Amino acid sequence: MCLTICVNTVVSSVSIPSTFAVYQFYSPVMAPTVAFVTGANRGLGFGLVKHFVASPNYLVVAAVRDPAHPTAQELSRLPVGEGSSIIIVKYDAGVEQSAFDAVKEATNKGVDHIDYVVANAGIAKVYPLVKDVKRADIVEHIQVNVLSVVSLYQATRPLLEKSITKPVFAIMGSGAGALGRQPPVPSAAYGASKSILPWYGIRINSEDEWLNTFVLDPGWVQTDMGNGAAKGWGLESAPDTIDKSTGGMVNVITKGTKEQYGGKVVLYTGEVQEW
């Protein structure tokens, strides 16, 4: 606000053309907060986009594998806060170059900085015991659930450095990947892949002092994956709703500090979990 008043005073006193004032004295306060969410067209990703874009002055980059899919089109029908909007970009977590292409597409659509990245896209295709798991399944889950996070970090890092706030790189974890509190369920491909993520969360948070990086634990959520696991336990559904989980995670992302959460595993409630 002060910058705007000062600009108007300068412009009126020296008769500088208004176009000069607009481009030379543009206030970053007016720029939108930019959130970049992968796997944005369903489950937790869709819920995260819904909560981000409901706030005023947000630009949400929704990264999806198939922008033409009906679930991706549903994103454009979400209610938005004042001054907020969504852009959809193509992103395939199984392809290394895709993260860089998605960021390039976003910049071509006007994105010049990113404040929050949520590496949410992932797979959970099989739930074998260790004695039964196939090596190919382990490799596929690590490629999509782990290597994609590394590529996404590398691709978004330059724009995170231009953040107008304190930037966050949040990695979607899972209780299935916990070591100290490992659930007694067969998950020798998915769980093993998720167990690697806290290592990268710690390293990125340590290597980039300006970036708040941590792993999110969404809880046991009523997604296709969560409900499928619940049925395997004889339950009708998982206990946590998508809205409750994603609303909590957005709160953690937007209000937490590096001192609180950097390099840690954080439940959607804000509680720090053991790895």
What does this protein structure show overall?
It holds the Pfam family adh_short. This is NADPH-dependent 1-acyl dihydroxyacetone phosphate reductase, putative. GO terms for molecular function: oxidoreductase activity, acting on the CH-OH group of donors, NAD or NADP as acceptor. The structure is a single chain. By secondary structure, this protein is α/β, with parallel strands linked by helices. The protein has one domain: Rossmann fold (3-Layer(aba) Sandwich), CATH 3.40.50. 44% of the residues lie in helices and 14% in strands. The chain has an 8-stranded mixed beta sheet with strand order 3-2-1-4-5-6-7-8, sandwiched between helices. Helix 3 packs across helix 9, helix 5 packs parallel to helix 6 (135-160) and helix 6 runs parallel beside helix 7 (190-207). The N and C termini lie far apart (44 Å). Residues 1-28 have low confidence and may be disordered.
Helix-strand layout with pairing:
Elements: H1 2-14, H2 18-24, E1 33-38, H3 43-54, E2 58-64, H4 70-73, E3 85-90, H5 96-108, E4 116-119, H6 135-160, E5 168-172, H7 190-207, E6 212-217, H8 224-232, H9 242-255, H10 258-261, E7 265-267, E8 272-273
Parallel strand pairs: 1-2, 1-4, 2-3, 4-5, 5-6, 6-7
Antiparallel strand pairs: 7-8
Helix pairs in contact: 3-9, 5-6, 6-7
GO molecular function: oxidoreductase activity, acting on the CH-OH group of donors, NAD or NADP as acceptor
Pfam families: adh_short
InterPro entries: NAD(P)-bd_dom_sf, SDR_enzymes, SDR_fam
